[in-house]
Amino acid sequence: MSAEDSHIQPLRGLGFAPLGPGPIDDARSHVSGGPAEAIGDICAVSLPSLVVEVGSWQGRSAILWGGELAARNTSWSLVCIDSWLGSDRIRRLTGGEWGMENLHLVDGYPTLYATFATNMRRANMEHNVIPVPLDSAQGLALLQSCGVAADVIYIDAAHDFASVRTDIELALALRNPGNSAALIVCDDFGPNYPGVVRAVLEQAGRARLRVLLRDQQAALVPREADVVITELINRGWVEQATRRRKFGFSRRP
Ligand SMILES: C[S@@+](CC[C@H](N)C(=O)[O-])C[C@H]1O[C@@H](n2cnc3c(N)ncnc32)[C@H](O)[C@@H]1O
To answer: Are 213 and 249 in contact (CB under 8 A)?
Structure first.
């Protein structure tokens, strides 16, 4: 058993395991796009083998993380936490990638998970992706109680301040203690999501993390991870203080 396997082995006893072979439903949406450059940068500089994604939806960002992990590791895992129930925000949207039609309601209940599973199999990632169908707080706490130690935690579930603050707090405890460069990445850091901005800044301040930004991605990086910080800046990431002045973000939007 590799070191990575030993980190996720306790999950099996609770019924969380790689998807494995199964149906591919042609009626379910293909997914593409997403923050490929930012995820590529994070993987290139921090070389993770175990990533926890919080908020997977149809699998678009999971495919990006999985692609980067597969390119660099013979043994890797991507643990995906999601209720696969959508959100209040998604219930109000129609059409396109985030529209509520993608929930595929049956008897009023979402069957979105089948789209995620189909897309993981389409991407040949079914042996490495471990779905955890729980709400984010329970999922993160459960992973920690099982001894899961992540190199990267990617947060893109609920977008209100209280939820993101909790997700980051729980993610902090999930960082691999054997990896001094283990980091957290939050999606949707920008003016459209003031709760995300406020939660990132508050938690980064509390945990004394540096915040680096690329597009809408915010990386919360340990101060001592000098090499990671320098390499991200060399790749075009910007320290939060610089961007905050530019866009006029305040600490309490
Ligand atoms: C914005 S989507 C994620 C998009 C995905 N990362 C991508 O790039 O394709 C948000 C997802 O978070 C899930 N979600 C929202 N609130 C949640 C919560 N409190 N716990 C678990 N999942 C949640 C929703 O079901 C949805 O699938």
So the answer is: no
For ligand 1, pick from 82, 88, 187, 216 the residue to mutate: most ligand atoms within 8 Å of CB.
82
Please indicate whether residue 102, judged by its CB atom, sits closer than 6 Å to ligand 1. Answer: no
* 3-state helix/strand/coil string of 139-193: HHHHHHHCCCCECEEEECCCCCHHHHHHHHHHHHHHECCCCCCCEEEECCCCCCC
- Alpha-carbon Rg for the chain in angstroms: 17
CB 41 within 8 A of CB 185: no
CATH of domain 3-20+28-247: 3.40.50.150
What are 15-68's pLDDT values in tens digits? 999 999 999 999 999 999 999 999 999 999 999 999 999 999 999 999 999 999
**Cα 219 from chain centroid?**
11
The residues facing 155 across adjacent strands are 54, 186
Domain boundaries, the chain: 3-20+28-247
The single-letter code of the amino acid at 176 is N
- The predicted structure's pLDDT at residue 7: 74
**C-alpha to C-alpha distance for 245 and 240, rounded to whole angstroms:** 9
Closest ligand 1 atom to Cα of 187: 6
* Average pLDDT, 10 consecutive residues per value, the chain (253 residues): 68 96 95 96 97 98 98 97 96 94 98 98 98 98 97 98 98 96 97 97 96 98 96 97 53 43
